[in-house]
Amino acid sequence: MSESESILRGHFRDLPQQRATATLGMWIFMATEIMFFGGLFLTYTVNRAAYPGIFAEASHHLNVVLGTVNTAVLICSSMTMAMAVYCSHKGRQKALSIYLILTMILGLGFLGIKAAEWTEHFQHHLVPGFNFQFSPAAAAGPAQLYFSLYFAMTGMHALHMIIGLGILTFLLIESFRARYTPEYNTPVELSGIYWHFVDIIWIYLFPLLYLIDIHK
Amino acid sequence: MQPGLQLFPDSASTFASSVDWLFAYLMAVSIFFGLLICLGLIYIAFRYHRRAPDEVGADVHSSTLLEVGWMVVPFLLCLVMFFWGAEIYIAERQPPSQAMEVYVVGKQWMWKLQHTEGRKEINELHVPVNRPVKLVMASEDVIHDFYVPAFRLKEDVVPGRYTTLWFQATKTGQYHLFCSQYCGTNHALMGGWVYVMEPAAYEAWLGGESANGPVSLAAGGEQLFNSLACHTCHQPDNKGRGPSLMGVYGSTVKLEGGQTVLADNQYIRESILQPSAKIVEGYQPLMPTFQGLVTEDQLLQLMAYVKSLGAPATGPSVPATAAKAKPAAK
Amino acid sequence: MSGHNERLQEAAEKIDDQMAIHADEHSPSPKAYLAVFLTLLCLTFLTYEVALINLGKWNVVVALAIAFVKSTLVALVFMHVYQSSRRTKLVVVAGLVWLFFLIFLTMSDYLTRHWLY
Amino acid sequence: MSSSAQTLALPRKNYLNEGYGVKSWLLTTDHKRIALLYLVVVTFFFFVGGFFAVLIRINLLTPAGTFVSAETYNRLFTMHGITMVFFFLIPSIPAVLGNFLIPMMIGARDLAFPRLNLLSWYIYVAGGLFTLYSQLAGGVDTGWTFYTPLSSVYANGHVVAAALGIFITGFSSILTGLNFIVTIHTMRAPGMTWFRLPLFVWTHYATSVIFILGTPVIAIAIALVAMERIFHIGFFNPAWGGDPILFQHLFWFYSHPAVYIMILPAMGVVSEIVPTFARKRLFGYHFVAAASFGIAVIGFLVWGHHMFVSSESVYSAMSFSFLSYLVAIPSAVKVFNWMATLYKGSVSYQTPMLYAMGFIGLFVIGGLTGLFLACLGMDVHVHDTYFVIAHFHYIMVGGAVMGYMGGLHYWWPKISGRLYSESLAKFAALVLFVGFNLTFFPQFVLGYMGMPRRYHSYPPEFQVLNVMSTAGASILGIGYLLPMAYFIWSMRYGPIAGPNPWPATGLEWQTSSPPPPENFEVTPVVTWEPYDFSGRPDLMAELAAQARAERPVSEGQ
User: Fold this and answer.
1) Which residue has the higher pLDDT, D555 or B329?
2) Is D147 on the interface with B (CB under 8 A)?
3) Which of C16, C19, C113 sits opposite D194 (nearest CB)?
4) Is the confidence metric ipTM above 0.85 for this complex?
5) Cβ-nearest to A11 among D108, D213, D249
6) Mind telling me how many Å the CA of C44 is from chain D's nearest CA?
7) Domains assigned to chain B
8) What's the pTM value of the predicted model, to 2 decimals?
9) Cα distance from A207 to chain B (closest Cα, Å)?
10) Angle, to 10 degrees, between the axis of helix D351-374 and the axis of helix D422-449?
11) Alpha-carbon distance values, B305 to B63, B97, B177, B290, D305 (Å)
12) CATH of A40-211, one of 3.90.950.20, 3.40.50.2300, 1.20.120.80, 3.40.1160.10
């Protein structure tokens, strides 16, 4: 039972099989994640169709500039993550560590900006369940619904970011130990898939929550 | 109800017999295939029982023709079920325009019913025989379901919207009324009886217990309209801060932003509870919400009143339902 | 009949046995990453600018179309889907198709409530 | 029957005697041991759920329903539903039999992710503990369907704890499904091509698709209910702006396919048992395999038939009704192919075969009554009545549980290395079959009469049928206790089974019983078609040997 010692786990024939297995597992998990967020997107769609006017009104309370900046930050982090994966394939240990650190900084930056936005909503009494206030008062119900969905979706996304940062920390420690080589870099590759997936979710959250009604 | 073992429910509406015929068809198909398979299994059990310990089966293991056959034949039989069932379902969703309306409110754990003439009842519904009746139903709390087995009809009563159910009773008598959507502790007690009466008896019943007769629903709504001060803004001559409600019911309303909406029950309801959701063109979103300030009963009264403004000459229900049959702006 | 089976088998094997993925050998170059990265940034700016213009109901469509392009780029290049086996592509497509089932069939209820009363 | 001379002792090295301590079980990554861990917990929940069912049936003996209060009754049927659906039926066949058999059937040493497999058991147990807590703390009275706004606003019970339990258990299902799909793709032995896979593997693949694509949706729906309940934000409560029907869409998007999670693996079991006991290749192998996928995919497109009377649009109801009828096609394909497999077979009626035949008969009744419920005009009458209860018990108990029992009897010699008492097992199968039909057939009649489901008390004219149902349930209860007893007995005292007692063709029978920790001494190479007896000289020789051994004694069956 010395599984953790060698790269090849006992129940696999060879490394390509092990690699293909891990990759397929990750992608199937991504399909699960699509459906997980899909439920939220559906809830959003149905309610927006029910209250288009109030949802537009409520979305005006978001800070579009911060949202746009955050989108750019996340795209940058995807770029650095992609480079980290590239460096792990090429066996560039030091560059790998640097790109991982950059990705983490950008990820933290995203969360920081997000936290600032949330704080602002809190000060403006826009957090459902915590003394929610909205004018016109007649629209408070659906507006609260909009913000519930906003917090549920961005919160779920942020949770994924935090998990991603945990994974990146693990990768960083392992990369300091020079564990990743051109022969064995599946963990980096798979973490990259996860990180990019979180990016993709935001690519949809950003227009849906911030943008589509700002012209109104 | 007859004592002892009853195995088939009463049939007391126009739908009951059509549903029973459909049931007969479904039973025929089911019994045929059920017997085919069970008798087939029994036949095989005797015919192909293993006779020697080293015996193996014959090497027959595929036939595309057979496969296609037993895909196509059941499917065709199913298509008949689909169209037949859909035909009945669509008929059940299309109340005739001359149907008399009864307003139903479900709440944990009772049914409150109001007739347009004003008579109210609880857990009981009196209707005349051989006359189409349309129920407009709302819930004050959770989802309920208005179910009359003898009519073969049910429909959920969903909070936040109106659902409808219509029937034409064919036999006088007393029939079970159940709540068939689980609604909490006393779900099983939320039921009563539907009394199907001769028209004359029904008219007499409508006159009610009080000597001068009950106040009609629309009149009750008008009182409410004034006491809630709706009339200060919604003036009949369009000079108030809100749009006039004359002739609104059943019409197509233009909204801010260019969209239109059909002024049906659901729209009236939303305009009272979520006034800022849809703003009529040319008006400001000034109206406060009445969410929590009016009960479902009162909402139905207000609706009856608005409806009565729709076509004062011909009586409440006719033009409204006619307009509703048309598809709304999507 | 046996020929038919063999063909079926072959087709199934094809889907499966392209499993020897050597993503490392064909993974995109930093240049490709940079190009995609810059495109993504431009699209982000574009979607913001377009949102300021009133296009009526088309605002949603344009915003989602841009988001779709962006996410496709991320998936194909950053996530290496473009170089991946057909099996991986199948998984991605399955996820999207099921998302479509969920949203399409649910909305087909909401959007047709007034078709027949 | 075939403890034939050569193997009278259990193999010296097997997965059961690999280690004895608690740690060797709780920290194992061996799929076979994890399967047994599941077996223990699943059985526990089965009897918990069964206990609730007994109380429900006792209460319904009299129209007034005075055995328990209305409040208690509602909690009983809710917890019966939650326990049986989420903690017994969904994990039963996949997590116990699937876990044990899939690697062996495809010639692998283990599942692709053994540690993930163990983790999913722990997640399952953690979810179960939350639900048990909610039950011990007083229960939930929302119905297992958690319809809003009843569950999110009005109900009194421990909704959040129960919801959390289901949410957590969902991840266990997802990980199991993920593990199965990856294993089937990448871990197959040389020569084990797609169309040589046993159908048990095909059906588990299809089931896993539902696990990974459906479960996340109910997880999010249940999480939203919990949030609505805790923070009073209106996703689903119309008084707060939400939409109660949306919850039903999200819930049934998973919970309808979940029915296929239960029935598909059972179909897989039957597809194994039938060829083995008919000694004949499965008829229409490709069609049966494709039908599994057909059911899994179409199963995702039909959820709206649970909402025909919940103010769904007419157009939507019609499309869901039509799509529901499409499920009839792959179901018919399965049933007719099993029949065709038995035709001209050499059929022997040992216990697993009895269960398989019971499955076919009961599934046919369940499936045919499903046609009534997919039919719009008909469903309006029987929706939410005992007709529905009877229908889904025919599918879930008559189908899924019969399949599970059949599978346990079929693979018990492989799992334990020992045989159970055949006559006792046949008797138990008969008791179950009779008890089941007596319990649930009257409920079809009750349903058409109009008795709504979830009723604590009912009009007196329904009493006779309800008493019949309760009588049947008491027989059914005994029927379930019997196998429990003789399985435990056989673990110690049962005759040694040998590697391939029936005999059967699958790879899992090519290794010793119980199997060694690594499943196979040498990685097998597959050169034969599935379920083929006549093309297998080794099996034919075994049959001949058995025949020689038995002929002089002439043992009657």
Assistant:
1) D555
2) yes
3) C16
4) yes
5) D108
6) 29
7) 10-38+65-214 (2.60.40.420), 217-325 (1.10.760.10)
8) 0.92
9) 21
10) 10
11) 68, 19, 28, 17, 36
12) 1.20.120.80
